[in-house]
Amino acid sequence: MLWLISGKYGNRGALLNMLAKCGTSEVLEGRSHEKAVSHVILCGVGSFDEGLRHIDESNLRDELMENLKNLRIPILGICLGAQMLGGSSEEGKRSGLGWIKARTTHLKSQGLEMVPHVGWQQLTILKEDPLFEGLAPDARFYFSHSYGMVDVPADQKLAVPSKGPSFAAVVRKGNAWGVQFHPEKSLRHGMQILSNFLRFRP
């Protein structure tokens, strides 16, 4: 069973539709105490503090960290969800989950003049990973954000945008991935990413 953490800040409807196309119909929301949970998706649209406030006020932080450290359940952070896997963000004052060694900064400080960064981008893959299996060479993904992850250790940074600033587009540490783009809005290429994630077993 998939555990979806979206709160008020996720593209919940679009993501549920894409997950259904991937063959996932059993989705658990809210708190998870079920041993049958196989995967977790932390999705997000909104501000860093808003997303973390939902996690903390719902008492989900400890459960998420238990999944990351001990249960080894695969976790995918999407956009804001990816940033929350890091330690901090210029967008807010709350502490992130700290699983990925990253901080998030405004894209203008990374040299991007047109903010927010909205549109389709190809990826430059830095490190092969099961998340990329079966992707077409011309695969493009939909981005919509004003902040991006930087200072990610080389062994945790899997991909960057093919053009523009070199914020981390895909990160991974152990059983947790973060993608800055929106796979639920990235058509067949996004469906491939989600399908690869859902197939992953530790």
Task: Please tell me about this protein's structure.
By secondary structure, the chain is of the alpha/beta class. The chain has one domain (2-199): 3-Layer(aba) Sandwich (Rossmann fold). The chain contains five helices and twelve strands. It has helices at residues 12-21, 48-57, 61-71, 80-84, 187-199; strands spanning 2-5, 27-29, 39-42, 75-78, 88-89, 103-106, 117-125, 140-145, 147-150, 157-161, 170-173, 176-179. A nine-stranded mixed β-sheet has the order 2-1-3-4-12-11-10-7-8. Strand 10 and strand 11 (170-173) form a beta hairpin. The longest helix is centred in the C-terminal third of the chain and has 13 residues, at 187-199. It is globular, with a radius of gyration of 15 Å. The two termini are 15 Å apart.
Describe, in short, the structure shown.
By secondary structure, the protein is an alpha/beta fold. It is built from five helices and twelve strands.
Total number of strands: 12
Spatial strand arrangement across the major sheet = 2-1-3-4-12-11-10-7-8
Largest sheet: 9 strands, mixed
- Give the SSE string: EHEEHHEHEEEEEEEEH
CATH architecture: 3-Layer(aba) Sandwich
CATH C-level category: Alpha Beta
Q: Strand content of the residues, in percent?
A: 25-35%
* Structural class by sheet pairing and helices: alpha/beta
Arithmetic mean of pLDDT: 90
Query: Low-confidence stretches at least 5 residues in length (pLDDT < 50)?
Result: none
CATH domain fold name: Rossmann fold
DSSP helical segment count: 5
Distance between the termini: 15 Å
CATH homologous superfamily classification: Class I glutamine amidotransferase (GATase) domain
**Helical percent range?**
10-25%
Outline type: globular
Radius of gyration: 15 Å
Number of domains: 1
